[in-house]
């Protein structure tokens, strides 16, 4: 009987020792789990809702990006944006005219609920091809989207920034970087004002 008591006591002490060894790790994991839960990405599905509707746009396009040029072409036009897939996507149609001629563009915005990010894919009627998607998200009322493209045989970074967002206006700017993102040269700037019904 004493032998059984001794074995039981020994096993209980071993279990208590194991518990005491793992207790610091358990205590440390609890705050980490709370922090991880607090850092969950927010649902950004409605971040582009401001863009829905019909807009008047003033567009400036740098004629020869990444050459040191400072010659801009200006266009006036209309942008129409409609919701697709119950807001998980948007389709934007751009039509504008200026001294350089007529411009038509189409942008598809797609929301990835797993990544909590948007992609935007642009196509121009000029060549009928689809550009590399720019991927990004909104933080503090500003959207930044990036992609990597080939421009005149050289690989560059492209950044799209959506800013100054109000219910009736917003600003869009595209910039190129040929030095890995150290410097950015704006080459497409659009100011949009909502068309009143």
Describe the protein.
- The protein is 19% helix and 51% strand.
- Strands 1-2-3-4-5-6-7-8-9-10 form a ten-stranded antiparallel beta barrel.
- It is of the alpha+beta class.
- The radius of gyration is 27 Å and the shape is globular.
- The chain contains one helix and ten strands.
- The longest helix is centred in the N-terminal third of the chain and has 37 residues.
Please supply descriptive tags for the structure shown above.
alpha+beta; ten-stranded antiparallel beta barrel; 1 helix; 2 domains; Lipocalin; 197 residues
Provide a quick synopsis of the model.
19% of the residues lie in helices and 51% in strands. The chain contains one helix and ten strands. The protein has one helix at 2-38, and strands at 53-62, 72-84, 89-98, 101-112, 117-124, 134-139, 142-151, 154-166, 169-177, 185-194.
Topology:
Layout: H1 2-38, E1 53-62, E2 72-84, E3 89-98, E4 101-112, E5 117-124, E6 134-139, E7 142-151, E8 154-166, E9 169-177, E10 185-194
Antiparallel strand pairs: 1-2, 1-10, 2-3, 3-4, 4-5, 5-6, 6-7, 7-8, 8-9, 9-10
Structural class: alpha+beta
Main beta-sheet strand count, sense and barrel state: 10 strands, antiparallel, barrel
Indicate the mean pLDDT: 86
What is the total number of structural domains? 2
- CATH overall fold name of the largest domain: Lipocalin
- What's the helix count? 1
């Amino acid at each position: 009987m004493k032998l059984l008591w001794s074995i039981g006591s020994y096993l209980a002490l071993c279990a208590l020792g194991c518990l005491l060894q793992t207790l610091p790790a358990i205590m440390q994991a609890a705050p980490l789990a709370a922090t991880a839960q607090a850092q969950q990405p927010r649902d950004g599905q409605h971040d582009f809702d401001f863009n829905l509707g019909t807009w008047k746009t003033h567009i400036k396009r740098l004629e020869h990006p990444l050459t040191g040029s400072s010659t801009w072409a200006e266009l006036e036009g209309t942008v129409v944006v409609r919701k697709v897939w119950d807001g998980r996507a948007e389709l934007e149609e751009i039509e504008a005219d200026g001294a350089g001629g007529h411009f038509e563009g189409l942008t598809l915005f797609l929301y990835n609920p797993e990544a909590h990010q948007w992609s935007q894919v642009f196509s121009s009627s000029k060549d009928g091809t689809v550009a590399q998607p720019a991927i990004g998200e909104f933080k503090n009322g500003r959207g930044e989207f990036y992609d990597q493209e080939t421009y005149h045989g050289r690989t560059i970074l492209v950044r799209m920034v959506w800013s100054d967002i109000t219910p009736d206006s917003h600003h869009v700017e595209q910039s190129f970087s040929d030095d890995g993102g150290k410097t950015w040269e704006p080459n497409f700037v659009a100011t949009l004002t909502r068309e009143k019904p």
